[in-house]
Amino acid sequence: MQFKHGILTIGVTGGIGSGKTTVCRFFEELGAKVIYADDLAKRIMEEDENLKKKIKKIFGEEAYIGGKLNRKFIADIIFSDETKKSKLESLVHPAVIREIISEFKKIAREKSYDFVIVEAALIFESGFDSELDYIIVVDADEEVKIKRIMERDNCSREEVLNRMKMQMDPAKKRELADIFIQNDGDIETLRNKVKFLYSLFQKISKLTGDS
């Protein structure tokens, strides 16, 4: 079995409130390497001076405070302005994907992990799915997701619904998934699902070579 980047790569995605980050934290606890695309994007947006200029051109000087990304300011805009959201993604996604692929190659060379997990909200939307061996989609009942986000972000139901409208239809993501996790239950149920997948990926990672 041949992997796309010399090592087994798995994407984890899902809409807001689905629990995809919790899934990735469990993978980390078990010893997996996890790359968080959102953290990587933030670092690139703060360190790449050329990119910063382009972002300021779209969002204005308020996009940064003391050189640091003004995340809430930008988030408030992109969740209500599809054009600016698309412009930002067209700038950031290619840079993030290049960085992740570079990391894949480094890990494959060093043989430091059996497989790599990438947590990213926009795997399908950015076309990054073509660079991954498997994709896990995490989802939950809509009311469960709304409650989670309202509690986590201290925001209104209307704000959550507006943010959900800007994302890909969860049903479409489920159709595109290689593996689907329904996350309506308690935390231990989710942890056990991740433990099973961790063991499965360890086995798959050994199937490299001529097979």
Automatic annotation (TrEMBL):
ATP binds at G17, S18, G19, K20, T21, T22. It holds the Pfam family CoaE. Its EC number is 2.7.1.24. Keywords: ATP-binding, Coenzyme A biosynthesis, Cytoplasm, Kinase, Nucleotide-binding, Transferase. One of its GO terms (molecular function) is ATP binding. Pathway: Cofactor biosynthesis; coenzyme A biosynthesis; CoA from (R)-pantothenate: step 5/5. Belongs to the CoaE family. This is Dephospho-CoA kinase. It comes from Kryptobacter tengchongensis. The lineage of its organism: Bacteria, Pseudomonadati, Candidatus Kryptoniota, Candidatus Kryptobacter.
